[in-house]
Write a structure and sequence with these properties.
Structural class: alpha+beta
Low-confidence stretches: 23-29, 357-366, 368-373
Number of strands: 13
Biased composition (Acidic residues): 357-373
Region (Disordered): 343-373
Strand content: 5-15%
Shape: elongated
Mean pLDDT: 86
Number of domains: 2
Length: 373
């Protein structure tokens, strides 16, 4: 079920918007891994209440959605710089046709990158993102009792071709994270600014014995333009964690360098690693590293003792990375999972009575009055 909270939830990632304290952001030297939780964006756009007719189309103009920087002050937000006080998830009275949602600035930036660069995303504009969030929140307020404000919307737990099943599992966190006193973990770390990310990733690069096979030899002889066409296919399709060593490691290196959520790789660090020669008979195992990094997050699993949940972690596939990168991968997957009205929100369209129906009702009332007399 949806959870309500003392503070506003980010409707993208599920982590609350932290309350802002002025002393936190006096300058770049004050940066810390959790500062991102207090930096917010207020999205405002068209809204269709569950008591009225729904939208004619799931496509809305990006121009109809506004973004404003905001800071949290308990249950409300204050826009920057005009300091307008806004209550997220409240309909914009008196016309009810606008509503606002709050998301982290970092989640907004990641969603933009998903829209622009992900080969598998279903959202391709801020309008698509808006319709996804608006439909999710409207569906939750209609279906979940006593769900009024500061709630986390339920999202699909099914595949697109399966019957709708809604819940909180695909925020890829354990349920305790949505309670009033949530535990801390990698999900609280800044997913945008990750110090020494490239160095940490490359430290996982292992050596492997050089393998040769007829397939690998044939592949190596392909024209470069054909090999270049294969890389997007590998990024588009789900990739298993186990290596098969069918194609050259050089191709997997190129796959790694083109992973869309690795936009901030330090190319000098990569070049330095490439300049280091592996021992004779061995080569760098770019295939394993690429498969590990591309490994998707999973819904939190129940502990063996049955008393709690174990959240997904990159450590599950043997990868040691900064906490912020694990959080980035989670948020990236949440955005890739989205598509407008993925919760199957349906309205009961208003049908005004025809003139004939009105006359029949009048005649019926008249007949009743005559019979009483």
């Amino acid at each position: 079920m949806a959870h309500t909270h003392e503070y506003s939830f980010c409707t993208v990632c599920g982590i609350p918007i932290a309350e802002y304290y002025r002393e936190q952001v006096n300058g770049p030297s004050c940066w810390n891994a959790r500062l991102w939780e207090a930096n917010a964006v207020l999205l405002t756009g068209p809204h269709w209440s569950d008591t009225e007719q729904g939208p004619e189309s799931m496509k809305v103009s990006p121009k109809s959605v506004t973004r404003r920087l905001a800071i949290a002050a308990h249950i409300d937000l204050h826009t920057i710089p005009d300091r307008e006080r806004v209550f997220p998830q409240f309909e914009d009275y008196p016309n009810h046709h606008r509503i606002s949602f709050c998301i982290h600035s970092a989640c907004d930036a990641i969603a933009d990158r998903v829209i622009e660069t992900s080969p598998t995303a279903h959202i391709r504009s801020i309008g698509d993102l808006w319709m996804t969030l608006e439909r999710r929140c409207t569906k939750t307020t209609r279906d979940v009792p006593n769900c009024f404000d500061n709630f986390l919307p339920e999202i699909p737990e099914n595949n697109p071709d399966e019957p709708a099943k809604l819940g909180l599992g695909r925020y890829y966190l354990q349920p305790e994270c949505f309670w009033e006193d949530p535990p801390s973990g990698w999900w609280n770390h800044d997913p945008l600014h990750i110090p020494d990310l490239t160095t940490a990733l490359i430290s996982n690069l292992e050596q492997v014995h050089v393998t040769s096979s007829p397939f690998a030899s044939t592949f190596a002889s392909l024209p470069q333009e054909i090999a270049d066409m294969i890389i997007p296919l590998l990024l588009r399709e789900p990739i298993e964690i186990d290596c098969n060593y069918l194609v050259p490691q050089t191709l997997w290196k190129d796959v790694f360098l083109q992973i869309p959520f690795l936009w901030d790789l330090d190319r000098e660090v990569i070049a330095s690693k490439l300049s280091s020669v592996a021992p004779k008979g061995k080569e760098w195992n770019w295939e394993k590293l690429a498969r590990q990094v591309l490994s998707p997050p999973k819904v939190a699993s129940v502990e063996e003792n049955g008393y709690g949940y174990l959240p997904w972690d990159y450590k599950d596939v043997g990868l040691v990375v900064p906490s912020g990168f694990t959080n980035r991968r989670r948020i990236w997957q949440i955005c890739e999972d989205m598509y407008p009205n993925d919760v199957g929100m349906e309205h009961r369209p208003y049908q005004p009575p025809s003139n004939d129906e009105g006359l029949e009702s009048f005649d019926s009332d008249s007949d009743s009055s005559d019979n009483e007399e």
